[in-house]
Amino acid sequence: xxxxxxxxxxxxxxxxxxxxxxxxxxxxxxxxxxxxxxxxxxxxxxxxxxxxxxxxxxxxxxxxxxxxxxxxxxxxxxxxxxxxxxxxxxxxxxxxxxxxxxxxxxxxxxxxxxxxxxxxxxxxxxxxxxxxxxxxxxxxxxxxxxxxxxxxxxxxxxxxxxxxxxxxxxxxxxxxxxxxxxxxxxxxxxxxxxxxxxxxxxxxxxxxxxxxxxxxxxxxxxxxxxxxxxxxxxxxxxxxxxxxxxxxxxxxxxxxxxxxxxxxxxxxxxxxxxxxxxxxxxxxxxxxxxxxxxxxxxxxxxxxxxxxxxxxxxxxxxxxxxxxxxxxxxxxxxxxxxxxxxxxxxxxxxxxxxxxxxxxxxxxxxxxxxxxxxxxxxxxxxxxxxxxxxxxxxxxxxxxxxxxxxxxxxxxxxxxxxxxxxxxxxxxxxxxxxxxxxxxxxxxxxxxxxxxxxxxxxxxxxxxxxxxxxxxxxx
Length: 475
Ligand SMILES: [Fe+2]
Ligand SMILES: [Fe+2]
Fold this sequence. Notes:
Blueprint: H1 20-40, E1 49-55, E2 64-69, H2 108-128, H3 139-166, H4 168-180, H5 202-223, H6 229-267, H7 272-277, H8 283-298, H9 307-314, E3 336-343, E4 346-353, H10 358-383, H11 418-428, H12 432-441, E5 472-473
Antiparallel strand pairs: 1-2, 1-5, 3-4
The protein binds fe (ii) ion (2 copies).
């Protein structure tokens, strides 16, 4: 069960050869996927040999293998965590019933919508990161970018497998649509806002993989609780790959900070202009990037009060983060939760039924988790003996979704007027000028062991290889 069959055209651990209809459907979809990769995947990368990990087993002790691969030959496939014997639905109105192995008819539309929404984010991020290879700060970083990209491609396969296996003709149509939408396209954009933003430079990429891939982690954790067992098993395995994406983000930002601190100490200054002249990214600019990515990412959790969230939970389709570890009744009909609203020009907490506030519950879990990395970034600054500290902005800052959209709130959490907002916007969010400066630093470094001036080398290489290993070979 745990070994993946690579003899198949589509590697899998779901006995694809025994399900001819599904195999044919997926083999029919595969050329479209490869065309999408060619058209919208990493630019000018087809002939590179990249030192990549490939999933070979779903056994946590030895699930991946490393070696040089040309990305179009990457073994994208379908891997599910092993089934848990007698698994039950563990929350909502169906709690205690056996987990579903087939789609329950009455929940079909909602389940399809959850899978399509998750599936859409996977190719979207590859599209957003398409041009970054041209400005990689090192071979090590270029390899990490490509690793994230191929695994997001595999996550698309994971969702398409569910659509093809369980949703018949509309599932196949949705799978085609997943290849047709494009991030940022005016006519046919990706479904969620943050996935239509540009990822124009490497600081954005690191912030994206730290914050937005972490949104992925929380969504996948909530889906891994699903009463629909194939979805739970598929998303569980996706989480093993997700950890590396967040590592790329956290360590990437950390290395940018480290390099800036080194130059601050060398020059004995915190003056952004002098630091910029020395070719590093000043800490206030890093803070403004953080403010942008944090606020755009927390919008992904949806409206703070949502009847859909209540339905997804009560019907057993989408749980909470670590549902099994929570001590309540897992039905939540008598529980309340606090959400924010603006009353008389101030933010106040309001108690609402918890079932309607489950997006907010997941958002708050995400916020707790993302603060951890920010304090590790601050340790780097502290170690350098410098007083600056990064902070996540208030959760009402720069929101576009839910009850807080349309109110202007400062990063510190004060409600401000439109005029105050406009006056301070460039101090709070990465400005056009900040982005232009960061873009001016981006230049390609491809000599093994060399790093761009604005980022420190990592402590260790990938898979115990040295830092100056030739992670990408150009042909
Ligand atoms: Fe993903
Ligand atoms: Fe990811």
